[in-house]
Each structure stands twice: as structure tokens, then as C-alpha cells.
């Protein structure tokens, strides 16, 4: 890797970056449910230097062929591809061979990590009403659980969101018994360590039950070895076991081992780097063909088909090791990368589970536009989110937001300040009724019922969503590698989404809270809230060519002084303006600066103070929608749209 003087944080964030690509991207709008066609013969020889060409050549058949190869590797190596075991080493060899066959620049990175494997596990209720529970369905041993066998009372520990987070939560009655702890506001490792210090013989951590998505089987990691048998379970079983007699036994193996990250590069015209990653390892319990053979196979096929291009940015594909033990491969890479090399990375795209059988189309919420859960990613993450939303929107496919909650390999990149984004189709979270109505599938069941189990095989895939997401990955890689700029232009108006969809308040070029079409909160037609057009006293609305405000895809820009706002096409039609023509309001400003309201989360309407005028922005209250309006000359209504909650994340 070569050094560079082009720092990521100094790059311009502007509307113009993707506009030049719009004609290429908008030309590709295949039917959402049309059957996949084999890649044309020309794909073996041509340079796929546009999104259209690349998507034509990246087929679901090609992705499935890689998944089949990973299944065969697992079958030949004890049923898994876990880091530290032979199946992972064989998976590395396969990816390296495939990448080298496409003449990609391939390197590997070895690192030492704390290995963990469950050898046996059991959970029983012995009194009253004896019952034997099934591993992987009713309970799951926590990663880095110790070995041991204990029989005793399941003693509830301070039920609620802080259960087990403080040593004082554990009374003397826990000693020698089984601590029954609710999921909540601290790590599983903290809960387990407190239980051990209190003298518990074992621990059961049950899901929080905070909402429908937090009812299911809890599968987690303690982060580091704890000398105590610890399992996770469902909210319902946790409540059922309280005060009963229980027998718990786990046997595990742990110790330091060596594993490998794999990298394959397409050299660019500049030394700026777009990174595209997926973890290659499975859990020891199964072959991991959705988690994460789906993401690994998809980016491998994209890498092979884009190998002959000369993009603006270097594209570095990464297959991470030991993700299932705590994002260890990605963390090792980021933590050992010299600062000048880290500054070369313009953004990181993550693909961890993109073919779940009971799927939802989740897009990482780069700008925290739903104002719920984890905060926004580093500056530029909203632009990455926009690209994926544009892909789905232009094909009439519903999607919704999901948080950067730290459970996949984007985590170390975000912590280092690298903009990030990507796709996800769901893991152990439970599909809601609203999601089932939008995406199909079965409400009340996990997005992936085989998550972290032996049944995560080649057949544990929705070929339909895998096909769509393989194209989405190709689209994003081709789009973002063709420019040096990240462009937070605002999400396009989307198709109806599930009731828990993302959306909500907008992206904000120019430092203002501008209008973003809402894809969710019950769905609805395209439109969404737009920035207001102020009174004639503060500037006539007029058309003016402005290359800095060109539309990208379905995004439409309104210029208020130096601050750009997005105006959806239906609102522009109300004003009698051409749908794809930018407009400006040059005098809605105060010395060229627009001061945004400080608190986007206010329950009442916020305003932008623009000179002597107030330009209404967003009234934000979760899950509720106010009347959307443009302020026509002489009017200043306070209304604007508000978005709903996000979907669950793995």
C-alpha cells in the first residue's frame, strides 16, 4: 500500500459529485421480481466500467456458485468454517484462488485471536414440570462462556434494563445458584463477571422483551473468557424459569489461535480507497452460508466482475476473519493500519447477511434520520446511505433503516472516523406484522430462523433478495468508486415501507435540516417534506441554472443562499416548476449563512432563522406525521413531515 497526500477529512462534500453519474445510474431499472438472467458471454472479457454493465454481469447464479463452494468446504471440514478451524482456512484458500483468477491484487493478513468453541451444552428445568430445552432454539451458550455444570434455583437478578449491571444487584441468595439476568443497558460480559463475583454457579441471560424484536433467542458474546457457564435465552423462557429448579451444563474450548484476513484490490487512478467488506467466518455450530456466506459470496462476485476496470478510487475488497468472536479481523486491520493509510479510506461498505430467508431490506442509517437508537455514522455516511436508498427506490423496492449498533465489521471503521454504510437482511430479530405485509414472509418468526445454527446451509437463502442485493452492491461499488466525493444529497422518495421503517428528518447539506422524503411510518406516496419557500419579501422564487444544484436520481435541490435543500418532484409540480430543474432563492440568507435550530429532536416545529424571515424546517416527534407544506409567498405554516422508528439490527 502506498502513501498519499489526499486526506479523507479534507475532501469536499458537495452536490456535484454524483450528478455526472446520474444518467448511467438511472438507466438501470430492472423489474423488482424479474427472474435473474445468466451473465452474457461478453462479461468474461469486457471492462465493466459502469453500474449498468457491472450489474448485468454480477448474477445471482455467480453468487450462488460461491455459496455452494463454501457449503462444500464446510461439509468437508466438520460442518463449519469457523476461524481457527480447517474450514476457515479452506475458505480463505477459495477466496484467494478466485480473486487471483480474476487477476486482482491479492494479499493476506494473519493475526492471533482468542479462539472459542462449544463442545456440548444442555439446559433443563427439573422442577416443577420437568422440561428439556433445545440448544439453538430455546437457548444458546454465550461466546467465551466457561465450562461447568450447575443445578439449582434460577434466581431473578434485579429485573429490568439494568439487571446485573452492578455488583449490588446480586444478593446472597445467588451464591451457588443460577443467576437469571435480563438483557439491558450493560454488556453481557459485565453481567457474567458480576454473577461470578457474587458466587453464582452459572448464569442465564434472557432477552429484554422491550419490543417484539427483543422477544426472541438471545445469542451473544461475553467479549472475553469468563469462568462461568453462561447461556442466553428468550424473554418468555426467562420469565418461565424464574424461581424454578434448573440444571445447566456447558463444555467449551478456548485458547489463542491464528487466522487470516483476505484483501483483493482493483487499482484506481488515485490513491483514495473505497473499502468493501464482509466477514468470511461462520460460527462453529454451522456452515454459515447466509451468515456470512451471502455477503462474502456477493462481494467476491462483484470483485471478479469489476477487476478489469480503472476506477477513480482504488477498490479494496476485504474478507474478515474472526468476526463472530467480536469483529476481531476488522479491528486488527484498523488498529494496525498507519494513520496515512487510514486517511486514504474514503468510506467502508459492509455486507453481513444479505440473503436472509425471512428478509427485510435494511439499509444502515448513516445520518440517524430516524432519531432512534445509535447515533449517526461519521460525516459522509449519509451519502453512502443515499446510494443504497436510490437503488431500491428506482426499482420500486421497499426498504427501511437499521442502526449502526456495533454488531458487524463497520464498527472499527466508524470508531476511526471512516464514513460507512451497507445492507443487511436480518438475523435473530423477529419480523413484525407490518414488515410481513410489506416484504412478504412470516410475521412472528426470525428474519433468519437458522441464525448461528447447523441449518444455515445453502438452502437457507432467499434467492430473490440475494439477487436484488448483489445488484445493489454492484451499483454502490460502481457509483462510489467512480468519484472522490461523498454526496449527502438526501434520500429519494421511496415506495411504501413497513411501519417500523426509517425515514424521518433529513440529510443536511450546508449544515441545515432540510427536507427528506419519508420511506416508512406506514409508507405512502413519494413526496416527503421539503424546505420552505419564503415570502416574496425575502426573495422571489425563480429558476436559475446552477451546476452546483443539479438533481441526482430522484433528488431535487432548492438553493437558499449558500444552503441547499432537497425538493421532491410533487412539491415542485405544485410550484409550476420543471420536475428536474434546480431553483434558487438567493436572498433567503443572513450574510450567506443559515443558522439551523440546535435541537432536531424538539417536539414542536423548529425554524431556520434566515435574515429577518423564519424558514420552517422539521417538527420531530417519533412515529407521527404532520401535514407537509411548502410555504408559498406570503405564508409561513409550521408543518412538516416526521419519520418513524427503525428496524432491528443483528
Q: Main beta sheet, described? A: 14 strands, mixed
Coarse shape? globular
In percent terms, what proportion of residues is strand? 15-25%
Helix coverage percent of residues? 10-25%
Given helix and strand content, the structural type is alpha/beta
List how many beta strands DSSP finds.
Answer: 22
Number of helices: 14
Mean pLDDT: 75
Measured between the Cα atoms of the first and last residue, the distance is 33 Å
Low-confidence stretches: 1-36, 488-650
Radius of gyration using CA atoms only: 26 Å
Could you please describe the fold and organization of this structure?
Strands 1, 2, 3, 5, 6, 7, 9, 10, 11, 12, 13, 14, 15 and 16 form a 14-stranded mixed sheet that branches. Strands 17-20-18-19 form a four-stranded mixed sheet, with no helix packed on it. Strands 4-8 form a two-stranded parallel sheet. It is built from 14 helices and 22 strands. The protein is α/β, with parallel strands linked by helices. Helix 2 packs antiparallel against helix 13. Mean pLDDT is 75; it is low at 1-36 and 488-650. Helix 5 (188-197) links the parallel strand 6 (178-182) and strand 7.
Top keywords for this entry?
four-stranded mixed sheet; 14 helices; disordered N terminus; 22% helix; single chain; 650 residues; alpha/beta; 14-stranded mixed sheet
Structure at a glance:
The chain is of the alpha/beta class and 650 residues long. The protein is built from 14 helices and 22 strands.
Amino acid at each position: 500500500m502506498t502513501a498519499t497526500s489526499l486526506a479523507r477529512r479534507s475532501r469536499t462534500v458537495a452536490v456535484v459529485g454524483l450528478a455526472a453519474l446520474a444518467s448511467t445510474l438511472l438507466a438501470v431499472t430492472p423489474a423488482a421480481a424479474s427472474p435473474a438472467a445468466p451473465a452474457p458471454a461478453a462479461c468474461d472479457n469486457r471492462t465493466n466500467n459502469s453500474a449498468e454493465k457491472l450489474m448485468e454481469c454480477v448474477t445471482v447464479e455467480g453468487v450462488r456458485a460461491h455459496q455452494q463452494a463454501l457449503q462444500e468446504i464446510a461439509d468437508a471440514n466438520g460442518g463449519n468454517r469457523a476461524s481457527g478451524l480447517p474450514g476457515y482456512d479452506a475458505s480463505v484458500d477459495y477466496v484467494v484462488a478466485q480473486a487471483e483468477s480474476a487477476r486482482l491484487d491479492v494479499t493476506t493478513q494473519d493475526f492471533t485471536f482468542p479462539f472459542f468453541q462449544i463442545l456440548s451444552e444442555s439446559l433443563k428445568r427439573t422442577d416443577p414440570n420437568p422440561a428439556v430445552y433445545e440448544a439453538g432454539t430455546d437457548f444458546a451458550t454465550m461466546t467465551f462462556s466457561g465450562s461447568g455444570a450447575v443445578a439449582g434455583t434460577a434466581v431473578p437478578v434485579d429485573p429490568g434494563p439494568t439487571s446485573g449491571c452492578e455488583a449490588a444487584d446480586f444478593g446472597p441468595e445467588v451464591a451457588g445458584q443460577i443467576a437469571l439476568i435480563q438483557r439491558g443497558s450493560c454488556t453481557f460480559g459485565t453481567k457474567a463477571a458480576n454473577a461470578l463475583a457474587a458466587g453464582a454457579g452459572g448464569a442465564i441471560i434472557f432477552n429484554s422483551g422491550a419490543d417484539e424484536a427483543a422477544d426472541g433467542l438471545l445469542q451473544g458474546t461475553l467479549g472475553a473468557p469468563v469462568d462461568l457457564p453462561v447461556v442466553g435465552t428468550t424473554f418468555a423462557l426467562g420469565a418461565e424459569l424464574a424461581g424454578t429448579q434448573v440444571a445447566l451444563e456447558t463444555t467449551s474450548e478456548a485458547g489463542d489461535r491464528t487466522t487470516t484476513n483476505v484483501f483483493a484490490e482493483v487499482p484506481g487512478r488515485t490513491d483514495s480507497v473505497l473499502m468493501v467488506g464482509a466477514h468470511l467466518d461462520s460460527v462453529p455450530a454451522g456452515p454459515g452460508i447466509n451468515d456470512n456466506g451471502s455477503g462474502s459470496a456477493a462481494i467476491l462476485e462483484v470483485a471478479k466482475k469489476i477487476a478489469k476496470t480503472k476506477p477513480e478510487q482504488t477498490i479494496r475488497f476485504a474478507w474478515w476473519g474472526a468476526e463472530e468472536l467480536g469483529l476481531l479481523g476488522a479491528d486488527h486491520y484498523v488498529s494496525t493500519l498507519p494513520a496515512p493509510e487510514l486517511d486514504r479510506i474514503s468510506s467502508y461498505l459492509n455486507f453481513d447477511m444479505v440473503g436472509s430467508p425471512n428478509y427485510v431490506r435494511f439499509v444502515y442509517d448513516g445520518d440517524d434520520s430516524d432519531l432512534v437508537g445509535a447515533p449517526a455514522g461519521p460525516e459522509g455516511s449519509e451519502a453512502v446511505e443515499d446510494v443504497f436508498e436510490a437503488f431500491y427506490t428506482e426499482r420500486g423496492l421497499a426498504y427501511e433503516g437499521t442502526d449502526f449498533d456495533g454488531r458487524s465489521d463497520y464498527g472499527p471503521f466508524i470508531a476511526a472516523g471512516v464514513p460507512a454504510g451497507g445492507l443487511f437482511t436480518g438475523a435473530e430479530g423477529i419480523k413484525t406484522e407490518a414488515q410481513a405485509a410489506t416484504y412478504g414472509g412470516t410475521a412472528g418468526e426470525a428474519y433468519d430462523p437458522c441464525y448461528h445454527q447447523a441449518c444455515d446451509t445453502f438452502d437457507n437463502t432467499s434467492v430473490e433478495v440475494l439477487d436484488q442485493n448483489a445488484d445493489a452492491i454492484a451499483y454502490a461499488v460502481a457509483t462510489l468508486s467512480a468519484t472522490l466525493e461523498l454526496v449527502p444529497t438526501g434520500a429519494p422518495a421511496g415506495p411504501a415501507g413497513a411501519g417500523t421503517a426509517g425515514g424521518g428528518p433529513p440529510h443536511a447539506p450546508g449544515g441545515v435540516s432540510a427536507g427528506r422524503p419519508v420511506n416508512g411510518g406506514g409508507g405512502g406516496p413519494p413526496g416527503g417534506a421539503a424546505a420552505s419557500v419564503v415570502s416574496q419579501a425575502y426573495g422571489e422564487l425563480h429558476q436559475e441554472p446552477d451546476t452546483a444544484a443539479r438533481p441526482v436520481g430522484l433528488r431535487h435541490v432548492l438553493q437558499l443562499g449558500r444552503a441547499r435543500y432537497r425538493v421532491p418532484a410533487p412539491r415542485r409540480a405544485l410550484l409550476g416548476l420543471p420536475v428536474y430543474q434546480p431553483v434558487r432563492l438567493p436572498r433567503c440568507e443572513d450574510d450567506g449563512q443559515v443558522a439551523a435550530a440546535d435541537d432536531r429532536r424538539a417536539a414542536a416545529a423548529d425554524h431556520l432563522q434566515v435574515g429577518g424571515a423564519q424558514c420552517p424546517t422539521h417538527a420531530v416527534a417519533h412515529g407521527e406525521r404532520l401535514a407537509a407544506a411548502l410555504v408559498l409567498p406570503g405564508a409561513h405554516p409550521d408543518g412538516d413531515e416526521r419519520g418513524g422508528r427503525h428496524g432491528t439490527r443483528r
